[in-house]
Amino acid sequence: xxxxxxxxxxxxxxxxxxxxxxxxxxxxxxxxxxxxxxxxxxxxxxxxxxxxxxxxxxxxxxxxxxxxxxxxxxxxxxxxxxxxxxxxxxxxxxxxxxxxxxxxxxxxxxxxxxxxxxxxxxxxxxxxxxxxxxxxxxxxxxx
Amino acid sequence: xxxxxxxxxxxxxxxxxxxxxxxxxxxxxxxxxxxxxxxxxxxxxxxxxxxxxxxxxxxxxxxxxxxxxxxxxxxxxxxxxxxxxxxxxxxxxxxxxxxxxxxxxxxxxxxxxxxxxxxxxxxxxxxxxxxxxxxxxxxxxxxxxxxxxxxxxxx
Lengths: 143, 155
Known about the structure:
The complex is a heterodimer.
Chain A: H1 2-28, H2 31-53, H3 71-112, H4 119-141
Helix pairs in contact in A: 1-2, 1-3, 2-3, 3-4
Chain B: H1 6-36, H2 39-61, H3 78-93, H4 98-120, H5 132-151
Helix pairs in contact in B: 1-2, 4-5
């Protein structure tokens, strides 16, 4: 259990590390070029790992709805945005605001798709996140 | 922290918040792929389509390159770090941590390492020291996120 917890934390560290490396590449090139290399190198890496372990085409991948294949295109914009932002507002604020956006849009998506969930917990969570964003922004106006 | 002008700052905040929305869509799309195919497939396909999408965007936008000097080779390895992340989370998702534990601990790791990187100016990025207000904002946003992760959904 403790090992899995360590792996989950490490996964978060790697998310941040990856954004920093891509941001550094964006400093030398451009955010979109950095996003290209992120996807291309990642593709080579995953292809290699998948060949090693096998099972890449297990299951019924062709049965999935067509829109599920749009993740890569959205991801390219997401990675480019992260590389662009991290050089401007820093790693911590980039991560924090992306998390805020992910959490709040996640609640909206859940509600649209009718996923079960506690309304009060959702309201409290969204309220705290909005308050945090207000605090972050308020700090800037007085500086 | 070094402060850009307030309107610029608001723009950056809005962009980062919107990027979080894109991330939600990405998780939905890739998660749907994973429901039909393997986890490898759900990561392989977006990297494949993303490579071509990025090439297309580069051809259309033709962004200006900021430096002609060659950057160090490690700056091209961000994609490997992302690939390892997929493998780690696919292991922890199936452990007792499940989805909520994986996301919550991932957020912790991400925030602590981001703060550390900012303070040290790691990897050639600008150094910046977080203020008390930054920590207050962080506490609010992480508290709200943890409530949503553990109590806000049926999973």
